[in-house]
């Protein structure tokens, strides 16, 4: 198996080390793991691509490359230029912090998986929720390391992957607990915190110029039953199937009743 891995925290991020271990376990001794990751942190860039400027590529080691671009750029670079042969799976992460509920739509980790899915490849985004029970561990990615390979293999072996023009991809969040406290895997929907909106905090520099800091909100509030944050806070690894099709089908039917004249 040939696996392409990337992230949004950058090529030097500790979560990428954890993801490399997961990918190597899944690929097996005869497989290949190719790393193509951003040269610098790209958190919060979503599905951005550098459409109007080139991205410099640097080879750091055998099958290890840094791209001055977004996570989606890294996937495109891996598919179109770097990886020698067909890619069987794209893994993105392991993100430092959760990509559940509203965080999902901002995430560069998710953006990489989206691009892989748009390119027709199986893709899984993996993120590590941080909280009081794991943030001070010697390895905050302990839950990811302990359960990541088994989960990826289970998704490859048993999960649905097709059924639409927009290919399925999976959003995985590991709970904010030590590995031994993980209760199992939970298939859940994307949640909604309600207070998960981004905010703006202005500051004035000594020179008198105004700067804006973007900040998020509290991460530990439980979402509705059967959704990602609720499962994570309760100790479960959340697994959410997603597609790039953003159409609201129920609203579309209501809208067609308002606009009934179109015929195709």
UniProtKB/TrEMBL annotation:
<dbReference type="InterPro" id="IPR030048">
    <property type="entry name" value="SurE"/>
</dbReference>
<feature type="domain" description="Survival protein SurE-like phosphatase/nucleotidase">
    <location>
        <begin position="3"/>
        <end position="193"/>
    </location>
</feature>
<feature type="binding site">
    <location>
        <position position="8"/>
    </location>
    <ligand>
        <name>a divalent metal cation</name>
    </ligand>
</feature>
<dbReference type="Pfam" id="PF01975">
    <property type="entry name" value="SurE"/>
</dbReference>
<comment type="function">
    <text>Nucleotidase that shows phosphatase activity on nucleoside 5'-monophosphates.</text>
</comment>
<feature type="binding site">
    <location>
        <position position="43"/>
    </location>
    <ligand>
        <name>a divalent metal cation</name>
    </ligand>
</feature>
<feature type="binding site">
    <location>
        <position position="95"/>
    </location>
    <ligand>
        <name>a divalent metal cation</name>
    </ligand>
</feature>
<keyword id="KW-0963">Cytoplasm</keyword>
<feature type="binding site">
    <location>
        <position position="9"/>
    </location>
    <ligand>
        <name>a divalent metal cation</name>
    </ligand>
</feature>
<keyword id="KW-0547">Nucleotide-binding</keyword>
<protein>
    <recommendedName>
        <fullName>5'-nucleotidase SurE</fullName>
        <ecNumber>3.1.3.5</ecNumber>
    </recommendedName>
</protein>
<keyword id="KW-0479">Metal-binding</keyword>
<keyword id="KW-0378">Hydrolase</keyword>
<dbReference type="InterPro" id="IPR002828">
    <property type="entry name" value="SurE-like_Pase/nucleotidase"/>
</dbReference>
<comment type="similarity">
    <text>Belongs to the SurE nucleotidase family.</text>
</comment>
<dbReference type="InterPro" id="IPR036523">
    <property type="entry name" value="SurE-like_sf"/>
</dbReference>
């Amino acid at each position: 198996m040939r696996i392409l891995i990337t992230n949004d925290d950058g090529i030097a991020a500790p979560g990428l080390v954890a993801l490399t271990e997961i990918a190597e376990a899944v690929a097996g001794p005869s497989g290949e793991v190719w790393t193509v990751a951003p040269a610098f942190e790209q958190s919060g860039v979503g599905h951005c691509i550098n459409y109007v400027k080139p991205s410099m590529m640097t080879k750091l080691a055998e099958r290890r490359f840094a791209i001055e671009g977004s996570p989606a750029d890294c996937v495109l670079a891996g598919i179109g230029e770097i990886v020698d042969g067909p890619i069987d799976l794209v893994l993105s992460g392991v993100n430092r912090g959760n990509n559940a509920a509203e965080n999902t739509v901002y995430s560069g980790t998710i953006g990489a998986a989206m691009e892989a899915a748009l390119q027709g490849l199986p893709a899984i985004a993996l993120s590590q929720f941080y909280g009081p029970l794991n943030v001070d561990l010697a390895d905050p990615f302990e839950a990811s390391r302990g359960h990541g390979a088994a989960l990826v293999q289970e998704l490859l072996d048993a999960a649905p992957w097709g059924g639409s023009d927009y290919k399925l991809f999976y959003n995985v969040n590991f709970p904010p607990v030590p590995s031994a406290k993980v209760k199992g895997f939970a298939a859940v929907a994307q949640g909604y915190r309600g207070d998960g909106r981004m905010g703006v905090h202005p500051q004035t520099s000594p020179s008198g110029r105004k700067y804006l800091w973007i900040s998020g909100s509290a991460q530990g509030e439980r979402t509705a039953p059967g959704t990602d944050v609720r499962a994570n806070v309760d100790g479960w690894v959340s697994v959410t199937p997603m597609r790039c099709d953003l159409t609201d089908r129920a609203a579309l039917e209501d809208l067609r009743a308002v606009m009934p004249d179109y015929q195709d």
